[in-house]
Here is the input.
Amino acid sequence: MQDIILFGMQGSGKGTQARILAEKLGYKIFETGGQLRRLASEDSDLGREVKEITTAGKLVSNEIVMKIVANFLENFGKNEHAIFDGIPRSESQRVSLEEEFAKVERKPLAVYISLTREEALNRLLGRKTCAKCGKIFGAKDDSQNLQSCPACGGELKIRADDTREAIETRLNVYENETVPAIEKYREEGRLIEIEGIKGVEEVNAEIVAKLGE
Ligand SMILES: [Zn+2]
Here is the structure.
């Protein structure tokens, strides 16, 4: 078993895959937002530092993010394994992250759930969220024809940040900032690439098979 850095642009189903892998194979998920919330409630130096930043609504610097990673890794058993979800976001962050891994002698494998821009746009445009239970309905789920949530009857809404312009901007950021980090792992022979256009189950089976587990 090996630590995983999970990459995938919005719409690739990355978060879902992280949850399934954690459930099936016992990985812990490192997700910066979750770690920030955990630390902010903790009575420690780092906890107080994080709380101050998040309460003030400030952006968390790369330096702090790396402190959080170091804190997570320090408290991590040799036989435990993690999925790093949503980090690194850029090539420079990848470099600092790899420094932290090297300190604890870990060398994660990168898993990239790839999607073409067109596929991502098709999935994200027309996506609706239930205002009541939060369930997301993709364009593929025929959500266009649904008036209310089949699970709870709540109202289905298109998120304000799901306009074509906002989606294009997020995809651009991913292509310009994150893809160079992914390419670095490919060069190093540490990348597993899975086509995200396939269904959730198929993508998951392929990841598990390629991990050799
Ligand atoms: Zn609902």
About this structure: The chain has eight helices and eight strands. The pocket of zinc ion is lined by residues 130, 132-133, 135, 149, 151-152, 154 (CB under 6 Å). The mean pLDDT is 91. The first helix runs from residue 14 to 25.
